[in-house]
């Protein structure tokens, strides 16, 4: 059986990833009614991953060392690959993942100042160097992303008590480093990463995503 297609969505919190991954899943379902794409997220997506997510995103969690934070992200990722991603790809399914190693390189490598080298080395060792076939990087303006993220986290806390605002407490300088690292990744890997930049409407972003995914599906069939 041919290997499935592994697609990741990346970007700052508030970039619209969650909305767009759901729209992409619906588009794929309409295109192939008999094939449900597998949706997952990082951190999370497994029982172990959800526990890690609760720890690393809780704004009440203080004193977490950057190396510890990165190690937890990779523990979550290794479990997700073993439990969800790899089995689905081996079954020939499309996997849509909200964040992957690019997020760790941007947030811990860039934002925390750990650099790209340890992130990429851990990815090689712990994740078997599994690479997405396509990464959709959403980069609206920094100001718009942060405003959306902080507003969303406040709304989520009010609605269900979940507190996932730990990263949103960081200063804008932290996010500037994350932003710049994302752009560095896109420049380094243009064959994998499709950069969707600017303060576009939901429909405009969706159209660009569909265009990129449709092109990759054609390439996959020809391979």
Looking across the biggest beta sheet, what order are the strands in? Answer: 2-3-1-4-5
The termini sit apart by 14 Å
Which bin fits the share of residues in helices?
55-70%
CATH-level-4 superfamily name = P-loop containing nucleotide triphosphate hydrolases
User: Which secondary-structure class do the elements indicate?
Assistant: alpha/beta
Our count of domains comes out at: 1
Number of strands: 5
Shape field: globular
Along the chain, the helix and strand elements come as EHEHHEHHEHHEH
Describe the largest sheet: 5 strands, parallel
Query: CATH topology, anyone?
Result: Rossmann fold
Average of the residue pLDDT scores = 90
CATH top level assignment: Alpha Beta
> DSSP helix count?
8
Low-confidence stretches: none
- Nearest-angstrom radius of gyration? 17 Å
- Percent strand equals 5-15%
Annotated CATH architecture? 3-Layer(aba) Sandwich
Overall description:
By secondary structure, the protein is α/β, with parallel strands linked by helices. The chain has a single domain, classed as 3-Layer(aba) Sandwich (Rossmann fold). Helices cover 58% and strands 11% of the residues. The chain is built from eight helices and five strands. Strands 2-3-1-4-5 form a five-stranded parallel β-sheet, sandwiched between helices. The longest helix is centred in the middle third of the chain and has 25 residues. It starts with 5 loop residues before the first strand and ends with a helix.
List the helices and strands and how they pair.
Elements: E1 6-11, H1 17-31, E2 38-41, H2 47-57, H3 66-90, E3 95-98, H4 101-111, H5 116-126, E4 134-139, H6 142-160, H7 172-188, E5 193-197, H8 202-222
Parallel strand pairs: 1-3, 1-4, 2-3, 4-5
Helix pairs in contact: 1-8, 2-3, 3-5, 4-5, 4-7
């Amino acid at each position: 059986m041919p290997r499935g297609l592994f697609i990741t969505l990346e970007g700052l919190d508030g970039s619209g990833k969650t909305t767009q991954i759901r729209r992409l899943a619906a588009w794929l379902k309409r295109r192939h009614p008999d094939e449900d794409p597998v949706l997952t997220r990082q951190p999370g997506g497994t029982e172990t991953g959800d526990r890690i997510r609760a720890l690393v995103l809780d704004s009440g969690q203080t004193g977490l060392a950057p190396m510890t934070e990165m190690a937890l992200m990779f523990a979550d990722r290794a479990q997700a690959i073993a439990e969800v991603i790899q089995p689905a790809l081996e079954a020939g399914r499309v996997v849509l993942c909200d964040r992957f190693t690019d997020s760790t390189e941007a947030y811990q490598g860039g934002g925390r100042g750990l650099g790209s080298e340890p992130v990429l080395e851990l990815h090689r060792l712990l994740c078997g160097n599994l690479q997405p076939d396509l990464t959709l990087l959403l980069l609206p303006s920094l100001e718009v992303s942060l405003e959306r993220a902080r507003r969303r986290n406040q709304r989520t806390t009010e609605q269900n008590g979940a507190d996932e605002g730990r990263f949103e407490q960081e200063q804008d300088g932290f996010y500037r480093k994350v932003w710049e690292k994302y752009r560095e990744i896109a420049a380094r890997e243009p064959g994998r990463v499709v950069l969707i930049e600017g303060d576009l409407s939901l429909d405009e972003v969706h159209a660009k995503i569909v265009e990129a995914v449709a092109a990759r599906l054609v390439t996959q069939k020809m391979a």
